[in-house]
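Office hours follow-up: a student asked to see two folded examples consecutively, so here they are.
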Amino acid sequence: MNRKLRTYYYGVLGGIGGLIGWQISNLIGLSFTGNIYLSDVILGALIGLSVGFLIGIAEGLFTLNWAKMLRAGLIGALLGLIAGAIGLPFGEMLFQLVGAGFVGRALGWGFFGLMIGLAEGVTGGAQMWKGAAGGFLGGLIGGLLLEAARSALGSPAFGKALGLILLGASVGALIALIIVLLSRAWLEVTSGKLRGTEFILDKFMKKSGPSVILGSDALKSDIVFPDPDIDPQHAMLTGTGSHFLIKDMSKGGTFLNNRKVEMTELADRQTLRLGNTEMIYHEKR
């Protein structure tokens, strides 16, 4: 997905996750316990599981990388489950014990969003603090919207459903928005099946950090292109702290501005070609 649509898609998937969490919680029911905090642990875990999973699969889903989609979805679901199980009772505790009102519950949802944002930092190309910051803001805003919807609407069930949709959408949209606004480096695909897709590279730019492999094998590469002329591991990007070096690892060659390269430094707006796929490298200073 491109950077402009990323916020929209993440918001939609997050909202769907909130709706699914609400439906699951209604189907299971929480009447077996009279302990409000235990109920909140279970409810929060269910909501976090569904929202975390849906937001987690976004990148892999739209880049046709099924291995990444599964891995990111599972990580997002796990961290979402933990976040919901902690965040919702924490907010309720603030609400009950110190009279923090809506703000207390919203802070609990802020923690919930923060953890889901961390999952995006683990599985995506953004630095973890950017995903966490976006998730916290999204959870805080979504939590306030959730409490407002529950209070303002006459039907408690409808208010809860609408509130959870708004919460999930807010967490997903703010994670994507903050990542996009603060991104320093990304690849924009301009030809092939993934045309229009943009891959954020921020966390790979760090010196002595992880390199990123470009290729066609979802199990061997970090960024995967469905192009038969791209090798399973075609090229490698290595960060130096201020820019990227690209190293060719292929049989068919890696081309930068139509010149075959072995290893060279990338500069803003240069065109990179692997197989029949072209992309533009973007960098913000």
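And the second, which I mentioned at the end of office hours:
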Amino acid sequence: MAATLDNVSPAILRWAILRAGYNEEKAVEAFPKLGDWLYEEKLPTISQLQRFASKFFVPFGYLFLQHPPTETIPFPMFRGEARQNSHFDLNVYDTVMNVQSRQDWLEDYLNENEIGVCEIVGSIQLNTHISEAVSLLRETLQLESCWAFGYQKIEEALNTLIQKLEDAGVFLAFNGVVGNNTHRALKVSECRGFALVNQTAPYIFVNSADSKSAQMFTIIHETAHIMLGISAGHAGEELFSHDTVESYCDKVAAEFLVPADVLQDVWTGDVKRVARKFKVSEIVVARRAHDLRMMSDTDYRAFWLEYSKRPINKKKDGGGGSFYLTSVKRVGRLFAIHVRNAVNNRQLSYTDAYRLTGLYGNTYQHFMNNNV
């Protein structure tokens, strides 16, 4: 008969199911044995508790604590118009912890190998004029004001931005799920992206479940956070924020992606056509045109009423795609290069490389040999 555990409290179990986004009824429905444990009618075995931990994405050791640990995302996550929700989203939290783990390793590795700091970190302040901030970013990325016009597809413009930022020393990761777990989707309403500031290894994460045009704005918005030296994330509606820092980053992104003078030259009143030209979402163009008095209050309101009824997630996919190509975005090419070099130089074990990339064994080898 399997040994049972009597040092797991019902309070910890209730905390674990709430943490995973379940109420008690739904949790018992998903894991029937839980009902007996909650009311102390039966005790769990080690194997049962391990299955419970796996089911509800809780570290096994946490279940033996007397009191729940304090878990918080280490920066503000703005939702909608700078409304910070107090609820805890486990998928976002685990994603942030994963990126932070990569960043912690990178910082040590880059410092140990005397690889220089990223010069755009903390390069501006909130009193820096928007045009000055945008000029600095254009100079760093070597992109002219009309740069996006040269691409037919948003994906091409997006890839250019990624490459330019990586060349400048910014690390990027794209994912729409937690790690490689397709059962743990990252909702756009909970996370569009975030910036983790670090002088040596600044990181930008982008929710790949979002539309490509929205990802363009997210990348530059989070880059502005890196330039300010202020970590933060944003989620929900693609709106301009009332928070001071968020508003500043929105303005930098808007001017970088849709420069006022260029918009005035190409504006026809056709929001969809102009958005395709700049490779951004229609709401960004409409709001920009309205703010520059090129679109009337009435026209903007009518557009917004129609736009607000659209689904928040408009990503269009032609299928599952290549696992390895997807992994390039999830891991990040620049990060993968450093991991590979560290392993080859015996500064990192294969076990740690697997953990950092989320790729294991032959999958890891194939990825590093053929995709980096």
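Two things to take away from it. The two ends are 50 Å apart (CA to CA). The longest strand covers residues 171-175.
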